[in-house]
Amino acid sequence: MIKRAFALLISLALLVWLAHSGDWRGTGARLIALPPTPLLFALLGLFISYILRAARIYDEFRNITGGHFWAVARITTAHNAAINVLPFRSGEFALPILLQREFGVPMGRAMVSLLWLRMQDAFVVLFLAAWVWPNLPLWFRLAWSLAVLLGAWAVPAWARSHPDTHPATQGWRNKFARARVALAHSTRGAWRSWGWTLANWSVKLSAQAILLAALLGSTPELSAAGVLGGELAAILPVQGVAGFGTYEAGVAAALQPHGFVLSVSLQAALALHLVIIASAVIAGAAGFVLLPVGPASSKSGQET
Fold first, then answer.
1. Distant-in-sequence, close-in-space partners of 42: CB < 8 Å, separation ≥ 6
2. pTM of the entire predicted model
3. What is the spatial distance between Cα 274 and Cα 282, in angstroms, rounded to a whole number?
4. 3-state secondary structure string, the chain?
């Protein structure tokens, strides 16, 4: 309840600031003035990232999803749209719910898979932050990177250190042991999942950097810091509603050391955020309507 109250306050603060400063017009003007070429490149990159996310989930559950890639893409695009639209990160639950409904994946395994996916995302963003964040000494960047790499190795190593698939304990110990087994299962193809994750983030961050550079009239190299700041804000335990407020603050904070005016950074960040949300919603809606359903959903429809 407290987190939700903070989330509402964060988003309301952004709205109040925009209303008070009149920067709605500035944000709209930036969107209208966007050159078509960087916008098209950015949208293409975002859609490619959606395919890479689908490939990662398809690969992890390949013994279940084999031959149904586009049904998996339907799930992952709907999940991505839900994350971007629904408040308080509640859209995250779309992935395990749809995996269970469309493919019969047990809810516990799907939830642990989602946890591992988000952990991989966090490790990648934190690693990149060590080298993009300005004014850090080299020794600190190296130590930060080493700590992230150690954490990325330690999680799957810990999960696979006890391969017992039938825990004999009871109560919460039993649930914890089963979650650990599910995490070991999710990390069994860690190198492949890391490959998909790195490919996704490379394309996604590049697309967003191109778009933010066009909105700021800057270079993709400088705007990359702002994009990464927005993604780092997404790791925070408290988020604005649909990310509004925290995302913009993260982008603006990362751009400040590069000499960008705060109001300009917030305008560009909001415009970028709106494009990301619109892209996610369009892809999710189109995928849900046009792509095939999973085999479990098809069977249940035939039975009824």
1. 207, 208, 210, 211, 214, 275
2. 0.85
3. 12
4. CHHHHHHHHHHHHHHHHHHHHCHHHHHHHHHHCCCHHHHHHHHHHHHHHHHHHHHHHHHHCHHHHCCCHHHHHHHHHHHHHHHHHCHHHHHHHHHHHHHHHHHCCCHHHHHHHHHHHHHHHHHHHHHHHHHHCCCCCHHHHHHHHHHHHHHHHHHHHHHHCCCCCCCCCCHHHHHHHHHHHHHHHHCCCHHHHHHHHHHHHHHHHHHHHHHHHHHHCCCHHHHHHHHHHHHHHCCCCCCCHHHCCHHHHHHHHHHHHHCCCHHHHHHHHHHHHHHHHHHHHHHHHHHHHHCCCCHHHHHHHHHC
123-135: pLDDT as tens digits: 999 998 888 877 8
CA distance 52 to 85: 21
Long-range contacts, stretch 64-67, CB < 8 angstroms, 24+ apart: 64/103, 64/104, 64/105, 65/103, 65/294
End-to-end CA distance of the chain: 40
Q: How far apart are CA 118 and CA 155, in angstroms?
A: 13
Look up residue 263 and give its two tokens. Answer: 């109001």
Task: Mention every residue, 6+ apart, whose C-beta is less than 8 A from residue 231.
Answer: 125, 205, 250
Per-residue model confidence as pLDDT tens digits over 158-213: 877 765 555 555 566 666 666 677 676 667 766 888 999 999 999 999 999 999 99
The CA distances from residue 245 to 5, 10, 11, 129, 163, in Å, are 13, 6, 5, 20, 43
The distance of Cα 289 from the centroid of its chain, to the nearest Å, equals 23
